[in-house]
Amino acid sequence: MTSEIVDLADPAFQSDPHPVYADWRRAGPVRRALLPGGTEGWVVTRYEDARRALTDPRLSKRASGNGSGGSRTAGQAPAGATPPEIGAAISRHMLAVDPPDHTRLRRLVSAAFTARRIEALRPRIERITTDLLDAMEGGERADLIDAFAFPLPIQVICELLGIPSDDRDDFREWSNAVVAGSAAGDRLAPSLKAMVTYIQALLADRRTHGGDDLLSGLVQVRDEDDRLTEQELSSMVFLLLVAGHETTVNLIANGTWLLLADRARWDALRADLSLLPTAIEEFLRYEGPIETSTYRIATEDLEIGGTPIRAGDPVLIGLLSANRDPDRFPGADDLVLDRAQNPHLAFGHGIHYCLGAPLARLEAQIAFTALLTRFPGMRLAVPADSIPWRPGLLLHGLSSLPVCL
Length: 405
Known about the structure:
Blueprint (H helix, E strand, L loop, with lengths): L5 E2 L3 H5 L2 H10 L2 E5 L5 E5 L2 H7 L5 E2 L23 H7 L10 H10 L4 H5 L2 H15 L4 E3 H6 L1 H11 L6 H13 L7 H21 L5 H7 L1 E2 L2 E2 L2 H32 L1 H9 L4 H11 L9 E3 L3 E3 L2 E3 L4 E4 L1 H4 L34 H18 L4 E2 L21 E3 L1
Parallel strand pairs: 1-2, 3-11
Antiparallel strand pairs: 2-3, 4-8, 5-13, 6-7, 8-11, 9-10, 12-13
């Protein structure tokens, strides 16, 4: 394995990481890299090692904090990048802690975030989808992210939580900075502060004016004598708001880009919508909405794929790389809309598996069905390879998606 340390914040790497990941997989199961924020750590590159690492209790979320007891912010901000009181308000969610705290938090939140509540959203998701496409119809061109891929999931998660969707433009600005992490520069700290202030105001309002929404449910949720603390509440809302829409934005936009980059795919799926469930899983595998896991820290000396990892070393699991591992996926660099066996890691694996995965899949199914039937002649307005990807290491998504309707 080569000893060269690659800077993961390098724009050249972030603009097209797949060739780099392919080289890394051939060279070895883990790769030493310079992480955003300037620290060195490891990236797990191969599928089987990634799957095991996602469930390895020796790779801790709790140890990777910024002084507030939880993992770093969504976009891999460097330690100390945020004031302690802000870090404490966003770092006590399920994705940032280990058992037994994780077990307790997931149980409490799952009591409010039920499959019944998600399925009950189907008519509303269909209505929002129709309204957004109605607004697009009649125009010649659109940025599909601005017009559709962003407003659909943000409106859904806002309605699920009981948050005014009128605030979505401000929230989008904050969220873009948060998920970009250190790549956001001076925008990160004020965006985090604004988001935390907004969340705390929402929670205060729900304590006074409860309702039949998830936010009210989180405020009131109780399991025997246990309930969420103030920091856990704000952290959980932060996680649900960011993860509840960012991943779905990327799933819809990345999938549409893949279909329009080769119109044969678009036409094949439009001709047979029964392929849609497997196609969505293939979008998740091939250009998944999440590039890496959030930080983990080795709590003791261990080995990953035969490579020694020292106690205290940061570790990232390369989900995007693992999902292109040819040892697990035959023809891994080919997009196969009817791929039968597709155990991708786009939503993670193990105890931190994405709680919102069923909602993301439901929104994607409704969104793609509507796009394919409403705009059968849609095409990219610019060459596919000219569209830049958003900066940052955690999320993997396009910065825009200009289309001709």
